[in-house]
Amino acid sequence: MTGWPDEIDPLYRAIRLVGLMALLIFAAGLVEFLSFEPPGQATGTTARITGVYAYDPSTRTTSGAAAERFGRGQPFAAVVDWSSIPSQTTVAARWFDSFGEVVGQVGPATAGSIGSGAVPVALPQGLKENIPGTYLFVVERLSRGQAVEVLARRLVEVERT
Questions:
Q1: Closest-CA residue to 70 (of 140, 147, 132)
Q2: Which residues contact 2 (CB under 8 A, 6 or more apart)?
Q3: Residue 2: is its pLDDT beyond 60?
Q4: Per-residue model confidence as pLDDT tens digits over 39-55
Q5: 75 preceded by cis ω (within 30°)?
Q6: Are strands 118-120 and 133-143 parallel, antiparallel or unpaired?
Q7: By the number of CB atoms within 10 A of the CB, which of 18, 95, 116, 155 ranks highest?
Q8: Contact at 8 Å (CB) between 87 and 112?
Q9: Which of 140, 78, 150, 153 is nearest to 109 (CA)?
Q10: Cβ-count burial 123-145 (b if 16+ within 10 Å, e if not)
Q11: Is the model's pLDDT at 106 over the cut of 60?
């Protein structure tokens, strides 16, 4: 019976160390969460995305009906109704490809100063067509240069064909 404390002691210390590491990881995650999602930042504002349309880069205009799927060779752009956001709100609108890379954006600027509603996807450097996959369009409210609230989002699929 005197052997129990010596046999259990290393295991007990290991469990305490794992518990301490879990608490440190939790605390680091909480700090990161609070830095990227500060409390009290939600305003309830929403942006209105009228749709995602075929885009002509030479004339910088959209055409046709709103769509959720595009071919690789078809340029496209999201159209945002910037008047749906209070004019002094600092915003940015960004396109993200399947790899999470920004492939098109407008802003940061105040909603009232953004003239055109179309936010096109830019072709990746050196490529003639979009990379297939899911593209995410996000309109965000910024505070001190950091995104603090998502005002609208839209998903678009670029097909392999």
A1: 132
A2: none
A3: no
A4: 766 677 888 899 999 99
A5: no
A6: unpaired
A7: 95
A8: yes
A9: 140
A10: beeeeeebbbeebebbbbbbeee
A11: yes
Angle (CA) 98-149-121 rounded to 5° is 35
CB 39 within 8 A of CB 50: no
Q: Token digits for 107?
A: 């802003």
Close Cβ partners of 138 (under 8 Å, ≥ 6 residues apart): 93, 94, 96, 150, 152, 153
120: tokens are: 């096109």
pLDDT of residue 5: 65
C-alpha 15: how far from chain center: 38
The token pair at 69 is: 């799927």
The DSSP secondary-structure symbol of 58 reads: T
The per-residue pLDDT for 53 is: 93
